[in-house]
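Dear colleagues,

As part of the handover before I leave the project, I'm documenting each prediction I ran so the next person doesn't have to rerun anything. This entry is a single chain, and its sequence is reproduced below.
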Amino acid sequence: MLLSLFLTFFKIGLFTFGGGYAMIAHIKDTVVDEKKWVDDEELSEIIAIAESTPGPIAINLATYVGYKKAGVLGSAMATVGVVLPAVVIMFIISLFLDKVMENKYVFYAFEGIKCAVAFLILNAGFKMFGSLKKTPFSLTVFIASLAVLLLLELFSVSFSSLVFIIVGGLLGLSAYVLSKKEDKK
């Protein structure tokens, strides 16, 4: 299991460009659909926790899944697996980055990769929404959170993702409290 965790997350780290959010779709395909280490609902919960804790989301996801499957050693193996490719690649690139980026073919290849990464992040969002339990409560929180995000973007309000997480949490708590008040009536 330890080797499987390492190799699985090494592959995820090696073949996913764009960081944590771009990795979510690939992580879902691998750990939910292929390996069946967690289900869709648990992955959504892990993502919510991983996003609200310090550190990169992909590392937090790998750490959690590794721990769930094989304890502390499993979390260490999954974490090292997902981080190692980026560390090695960035070290190699840093040795000659200026020369590489002067090459117009490399520059435009990276521009194309940026577009692909934007799609991967959007795709991860669609997959997460697809696994969301469609209750009036969850849909209300989703729509309210989306509305707040769009308004902030529309008016070019700069904000940390932490602010959005806090707003989503407050909207969720508010909807829950209001639903409990309705139940008491």
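The chain has two domains: 2-130, 133-185. The chain has a mean pLDDT of 84.

All the best with the project,
I.
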